## 1
Amino acid sequence: MKNFRSLLPVAYFSLSAIFFFAACGSSEDVGDDNDSGGNSITTDGGKTAQNVFYSIPSPIELATLVQKAGATYDTKVLNDPMNVSKYSTSLAQALNLGVYGADLSVTTIFDQTQESVIYLKCSRRLADELGITGAFSDNTVQRMDNNKGNRDSLLNIISDSYFSTDEYLKENQRPGISALVLAGGWIEALYVGTQLAKSSKNNAGIIQRIADLKGSLENLVSLLELYKNQEGVNELLGHLKGLMEVYKDVQVNAGDKTSVQTDEKTNVTTIGGGSTVSMTQKQFEEVSLRAEKVRKWIVTL
Amino acid sequence: MDCNALKQKKMKRSLQCSFLLILLSFLPGMMHAQCKGFVKKSGLPKLTPFISNGQVQSSQMRPGDNAEIVLSFFSGQDYRIVVTGQPILGNVRFKVKDMQGNVLFNNSESDDVDFFDFRVANSQQLKVEVLVPAYSGDNNIVPNGCVAVIVGFKTEK
């Protein structure tokens, strides 16, 4: 007891030190405290950005763009829900959590409620197997059920679940798994987009959206490069770099210098100008083939 | 001092050191814990009525630190970028730039607002640069806090 008492001043000191450092960092502190797997680069103008992050458009957004461009729903292009039991490695589970998330977004955007429930269950199962708690709970299923027919609410529930997944993985120092989930979602959205474009008579709008993905593919590759030592990431990068080769030849049409205008009546700010991209039919077919190949690799892992 | 007393003193010191080391080993976790829940609690509600892109970009930052995020935006959608920091850091500055470095929005010229709503005429990549202002306090304890960038979209009406 006497010995324990003698430790109390040390305990007080240690706890004070911890709370002090948790709230404040000394100016001499160095190190990488990134939560999201950022890195450091020198930006234009020679300035160094200490944390550089890459954001990938969500499958919800990509599926919305494809649907607005005139695509027609086809359940056959989605990943078979029966495959969910085959994914046993964290690589397969993370990539296919992204894939099923994209399929969940597609079914919701095309108002396929029954199928949405199935894809939600697939996402939940893989999230559970990856040890992600709380993102897809009974409450999520209940909320989806209560909001049947309200597409905006359903999309918010799905984006909340994927936000929680991303937050959980980054807070628990698993940003590499988070990057794989994002990659799976992006690739599935591209694959579904190309497949629906092929089956649509008037597909120019969908092909334009696929061409618009050039920049986000570069972001995705930069993000995955941070985790290239992780199992399977190099192989995935190989597929994506092959896709980049095709996108490299996509024509970039220089536009006006970017400008900002705010409409006084609607108060909407528009960033005008900037370059545009256009894709030939042949390039679309090559993208489509490459997307099919990488997607097949993912769903059969 | 006899041999027993010397042994006891050594043991006490080694126990004290172990206890200190165990406690300090929790330090990195507590540093990360600063961002825990912050984004969802303080950032996500500011995105309403936009749908989040499902990604959390957050980092522990100190005065003078900067960060950069590269994002893709598509024509036909409305977007909101929210940049939020813990109050201890003061008003976090952010600029939206095109890929050539031209500044399109600077929050310090708009009353330090923590969001930017816009749409793009052509689909394009943009950069968001975040800067935590220099510390103006008069002691040596430099604050450290969480900064997050979140993005949402909605279909153009």
Note: The radius of gyration of chain A is 23 Å.
## 2
Amino acid sequence: MTDERMRQLERMSRAAFDESVESLDAATRSRLARARAAALEELQHRRMAWSSTWLPAGAAAAAALVAVMLWQGEEGGPPATEPALAALEDLDIVAGGEDLAMFDEDEEFYAWAADEMSDGVG
Amino acid sequence: MQEEPLTCSATLCAALPLGGRRDLARETTVDQARALDRFLAGIERRALRIARIALRDHAEAQDAVQDAMIRLVRSYGRHPEDQWRPLFYRILRNRITDHQRRQKVRSAVMAWWPGRDAEEEAQDPVESAADPDGGPDHVLEGEQLLERIEEVLAGLSGRQREAFLLRNFEGLDVAQTAVAMGCSEGSVKTHYFRALQALQQVLGELK
């Protein structure tokens, strides 16, 4: 079979095929459009499935991470430095909702504490 | 000019506040849906005709195309757009092959089934009737030509038929056809040439 004859056969058969594609009836085209819409709904389903699968898993992982950090802090972790401890205590006070005004009112206590500290140092 | 698809790179997403990231993710999904819609709309009619020729059953061909669409979106929707066409036809081909295997098993079982109707055995009178238009040497056009091509394709091996449908009717290049058929490019060329030869023999001299 010569190349030219082959090309001719290819052209003719493709033209016949293209013609048949163009002449698909309206019902078939409509069915295809509905099939396409159904396929694209998969995108939405996949997104929702991702959320429902990974969001609870992510929350659980975050909780586990916090638990491990706290546990390591108590048991095997390196000793916390003093500024770090002080910062944590400050945080406890703020988070604990204590009445901060009481520290202002007890002036005598602060004066006494200052004396005690200076005596200790000197 | 074709609109560039919006992508959410890790750097870009990290640079955005949470609300912006959510918006970008939503836009990415919308863009992806649009791109897939465009792709499927452009391919669906040809895919249906190809499936119809391979399966010789219109309803089954519609189901096969719908399944292939769903599978493409579900499994390969995030792949680059230029990979969608060969992947789609790979999925469709697998779906068609599965159906053909099931049909073969069913036929084998039915052959052993007792009490088959004699009418089922009888040859289709239209199929066996002489062609008043003069046979293969007659110059065919349009629908008639396609019907004759379909008959020839039905008699080819599955691989030869696939190579012809994908290369000639769908216009995939050799590399894309190889991906769709799951074989080497050399194999595609061989199968395609054999299919052309068979068509030439049956269709006779083309004018």
Note: Chain A has a mean pLDDT of 69.
